[in-house]
């Protein structure tokens, strides 16, 4: 191993009367000051050979007792490269040959520049000598670093060059006759001295200035002794999960304290201590669960560490720090009886929901468009009356997911909702091919508008399909989907038909006739009077039918009011609930048959502060169902729901 020797430079000096010695921290309040580190040279140029040759990742290798801390820096390589002409001009003046630029030395200098923002010294933060940075980047067998100059504080190449030129030791490195190549780096950070500079010299020949200058913000892993970390913390709140749901582990935070000395203007050594907090990446730690049958860990594509629920129970999650047990962390994972049905697309989610609701054969399947919510809103009641799943498909063709589910269900009858402008003839032909030879494809259930289609579902459901509708009917606004989503499971379970009206409009005469002749004694209006007018309510009452209005100031408030009313009927299970995103309709619509089939209310959520989560608290829910992937209902929202459960 090559031994580094420092040239004792008593004049390696300072601007603003500050001299930084090796081992000094640089994160202090030293704005406007500059400093030079003692120059170092290597007397022998025998390269160490343990590099891997990749040379791409600017990351210090771990050594015993050190840990990687990610730090964000901004490189200023255009400025660093401009110093080459200054150095070679100096060498020319004393009869020395010009130094060649070397991109490997530049990469080494860039790593070292990031390191000295944390620990201003030739000794690296991991305790190793500077030339070992070549090994970390895979250059150890290619080039050896024979000398290094470091500086801090000056914001430009000329100023830093002047500092080095006026310091005998640094000057000697720049004119050293045995040196043939150089790489330099400049980096800015919003702490300490701001700008930091490094020159790395070698007796090996350079490979040229290749590629454009790097002036980007980058994250660099710096190895610090674990003794620098004084405390570890993490959000120790119990992590609530459902079966099949997952949540990302919170990031631990570590308190870093770097201690050192600097010399004041009188030459007296002064102690300096710099502290800051840093979030440590979970992937660097070793995580484990106390019982993998309850919760299991896995790595996400985003680099995070996730905890997934497997079975109901409680276990611990422990993170082992890579170098010392002193900084280990533990939190609890509690898995509740929560299930998630979600996929990459709305049709994947639909397929998962249908599979959960109907695992075997279904004599009838109701098919409608997944791209056109009005038809699907009114179709849920029909599907429930026929004890059938609601399968959605794309408007252009039969989706692969719909085909797969229908094939698995092996129906004898397929009921299609929507005209050929919604479900084209080509899709009808495909659907017919999925039926047995004596199977029935029911089409023609549609109108010229969404409002007429909802009426036709009611009328043809009775006349063609023999449905005995409930004595309760539902009226909702057809100009939006949000209000009707929450009532759909009730419509499915109780065979209550859904009629759609225009926003702020009166009750169409045709719907009035259907209500008057259909044996209805109650109408539930979903939505405030700004969407379903008071005139509609008055018209219904004039028919001798009682009216219940369920409406809130937002779709989420309305969802809660609907759930409260449903639970008050006594027809639904008070120990369960389903949740879907209120920001879009496909997942909630697809969930109609499952939530309605098991008689649990469906509530809309946006995030962990949604009114529906407040509604769930204190209800002693024993089972919850989520419709949609984590893109629809996030892990944190799922955790908040699970936390409300008994």
Automatic annotation (TrEMBL):
Residues 1-63 are annotated as: Disordered. Residues 84-201 form the SCP domain. It comes from the Bacteria. Residues 1-34 have a biased composition (Polar residues). It holds the Pfam family CAP. Gene3D superfamilies: 3.40.50.12090, CAP. PANTHER family: GERMINATION-SPECIFIC N-ACETYLMURAMOYL-L-ALANINE AMIDASE, N-ACETYLMURAMOYL-L-ALANINE AMIDASE-RELATED. This is Repeat protein. It comes from Bifidobacterium parmae.
């Amino acid at each position: 191993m090559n031994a580094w020797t420092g040239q004792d430079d008593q004049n390696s000096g300072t601007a603003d009367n500050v001299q930084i010695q090796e081992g000094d921290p640089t994160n202090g309040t030293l704005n406007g000051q500059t400093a030079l580190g003692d120059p170092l040279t290597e007397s022998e140029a025998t390269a160490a050979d343990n590099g891997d040759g990749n040379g791409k990742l600017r990351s210090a290798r771990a050594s015993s007792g050190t840990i990687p801390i990610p730090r964000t820096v901004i490189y200023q390589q255009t400025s660093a490269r401009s110093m080459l002409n200054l150095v070679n001009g100096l060498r020319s003046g004393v009869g020395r040959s010009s130094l060649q630029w070397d991109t490997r030395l530049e990469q080494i200098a860039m790593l070292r520049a990031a390191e000295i923002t944390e620990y201003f010294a030739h000794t690296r933060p991991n305790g190793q000598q500077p030339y070992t940075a070549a090994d970390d980047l895979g250059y150890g067998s290619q080039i050896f670093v024979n000398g290094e100059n470091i500086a801090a504080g000056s914001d430009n190449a000329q100023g830093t060059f002047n500092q080095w030129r006026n310091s005998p030791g640094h000057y000697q490195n720049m004119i050293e006759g045995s040196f043939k190549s150089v790489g330099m780096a400049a980096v800015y950070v919003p702490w300490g001295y701001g700008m930091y500079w490094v020159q790395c010299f070698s007796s090996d020949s350079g490979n040229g200035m290749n590629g454009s200058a790097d002036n980007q913000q980058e994250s660099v892993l710096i190895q610090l002794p674990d003794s620098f970390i004084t405390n570890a913390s993490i959000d120790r709140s119990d992590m609530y999960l459902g079966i099949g749901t997952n949540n990302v582990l919170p990031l631990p935070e570590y308190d870093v304290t770097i201690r050192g000395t600097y010399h004041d203007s009188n030459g007296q050594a002064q102690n300096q201590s710099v502290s800051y907090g840093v979030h440590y990446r979970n992937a660097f730690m070793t995580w484990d669960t106390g019982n993998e049958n309850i919760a299991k860990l896995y790595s996400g594509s985003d680099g995070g560490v996730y905890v997934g629920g497997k079975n109901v129970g409680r276990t611990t999650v422990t993170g082992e720090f890579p170098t010392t047990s002193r900084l280990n962390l533990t939190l609890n994972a509690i898995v509740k009886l929560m299930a998630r049905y979600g996929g990459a697309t709305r049709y994947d989610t639909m397929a998962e929901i249908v599979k959960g609701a109907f695992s075997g054969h279904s004599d009838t399947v109701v098919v409608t468009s997944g791209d056109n919510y009005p038809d699907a809103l009114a179709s849920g009641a029909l599907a429930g009356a026929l004890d059938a799943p609601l399968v959605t498909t794309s408007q252009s063709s039969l989706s692969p997911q719909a085909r797969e589910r229908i094939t698995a269900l092996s129906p004898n009858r397929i009921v299609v909702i929507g005209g050929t402008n919604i479900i084209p003839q080509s899709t009808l032909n495909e659907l017919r091919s999925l039926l047995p030879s004596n199977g029935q494809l029911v089409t023609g259930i549609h109108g010229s508008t969404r409002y007429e289609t909802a009426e036709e579902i009611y009328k043809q459901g009775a006349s063609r399909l023999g449905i005995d509708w409930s004595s309760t009917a539902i009226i909702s606004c057809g100009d939006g989907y949000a209000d009707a989503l929450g009532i759909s499971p009730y419509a499915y379970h109780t065979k209550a038909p859904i009629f759609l009206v225009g926003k702020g409009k009166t009750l169409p005469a045709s719907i009035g006739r259907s209500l008057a002749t259909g044996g209805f004694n109650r109408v539930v209006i979903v939505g405030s009077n700004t969407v379903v007018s008071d005139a509609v309510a008055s018209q219904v009452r004039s028919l001798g039918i009682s009216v219940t209005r369920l409406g809130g100031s937002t779709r989420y408030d309305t969802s809660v009011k609907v759930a409260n009313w449903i639970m008050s009927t006594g027809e639904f299970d008070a120990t369960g609930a389903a949740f879907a995103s209120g920001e879009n309709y496909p997942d909630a619509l697809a969930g109609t048959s499952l939530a309605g089939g098991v008689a649990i209310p469906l509530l809309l959520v946006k995030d962990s502060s949604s009114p529906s989560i407040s509604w769930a608290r204190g209800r002693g829910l024993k089972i919850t169902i989520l419709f949609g992937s984590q893109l629809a209902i996030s892990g944190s929202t799922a955790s908040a729901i699970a936390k409300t459960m008994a």
